[in-house]
Amino acid sequence: MSKQMKRTVGLWGGIATAVGIVVSSSAMVSLGEGFGLGGSGFIIAIGLALILNLFVALSFSELSGIVPRAGGLNHYTLPAMGPLVGNIAVISGYVLVTVFSGSAEAAIIGNVFTDVFSLNVSPLIISLLAVALLGFTNLFGVKVFSSIQVVLTTFLISSTIILGIIAITGSGTGETVSTNLEFNPMGWSVLSLTALAFWLFVGVEFVTPLAEEIKRPNMFIPLSMVLGLVIIFIAHTLFGFGAIKYAPLDNLAESGSPHVVAAEAILGQTGYFWMGIVTVLATTSTLNTLINAIARMIYDMGREGQMPKVFGKLNRWGTPSAAILFMSFLFVFFLIIGFTEGTSITTFILAGSLCWMIAYIIAHLNVIILRFRYPAAKRGFKSPFGVTFQIIGIVGLIYIIFNISSDPSQAADVYKYSLIFLGLSVIYSYIWVKYVMKRPVFQPVPLDELTNHRQHSTEEHSIDDKEDISNV
User: Fold this and answer.
1) Considering all CA atoms of the chain, what is the largest pairwise distance in Å, rounded to the nearest integer?
2) A single Pfam family, by name (predicted)?
């Protein structure tokens, strides 16, 4: 009898997963640079990015209710547009992007850890040990992952909010800068910062690969994403406005670690040390979420034959060990070769953001297609107002893609890296589907084939759904 995943993740574990990848070092860089470039007006870009991501959360909530499996976007795309698009969406929008950005995040752990604690150890050694430890702990079940994630996320969010409140109320030990700043010095050009702001929210849908392991999924998955987005918005807004009260805009815009600059300006050495710890833990949280969620996407593709079958197996603790080890190996490999060291982290952020937006467009299209193809299908959650939010979301994402950066040379680099990500994904996906799976590349998979597995665990799931919310 095949091993089954068990429902052990509660609501706060779901929120921690949704928030875990978002509260990252690269997101803090985006936040600091955005406020440095746009001043208070950056809140306009943040607000637009929040709305678009709320639309994304609605689409993923509906898709997860239709196909409540561990594969995430891949499984939602199979009944809508077939295996080729499903492969491309996951590999380009998740696997490749997160390998590159995750490797950069892992490098930050070593650099900041050795700087803050003045250790005479190679930062690479610290980074490799962090990846090895997180990969190892994820082998022992989602409950271990969830426990780690809850602790990390609680500390990170509370630290960001507390630092923001200290700064906004003028309670910091540093000197405040001029408070007579123009609200939106960039005018309408501030909309060009929306792609940078978008990175502050991407990844909340990482809770959907836990669809077979989260309690009360029809309720907790939508709640986890929406509450996660709101929490992130509050935390980033407080810290951002606090940062520009103490740190000059130019210092934030030109720094490679503007969040550290801001924290030091607010609380001096205490702020520097505090933000150093936050940065290390934020990166740890991000890597923990990436290893866990992406491994489950790969696992589900292995089950469907879209990747080698070894990835579609669970170990004795019910985790996809081969996929977890594969993701950990990729992080280690790119760390060792130093792939991301020669490129601006902001360029990688924008390139990753663009690929993620393409994945989100595919998710919106999936909802629209499945509404018309399977109007009577059981949906644990249904996005309101027909497909209005999906259409608005697609238009908004396309606008951001074509206005990815106000700097033409940076935009060219972003499009270059994005095309590389997409090109590699298309080549692999076409060869695998056409010649290994030997299936029509655009032939949709019948929805019944993807939902049959629920018959084997209906009793267990119904018990979980009746579980009192006080046990979360």
Assistant:
1) 68
2) AA_permease_2
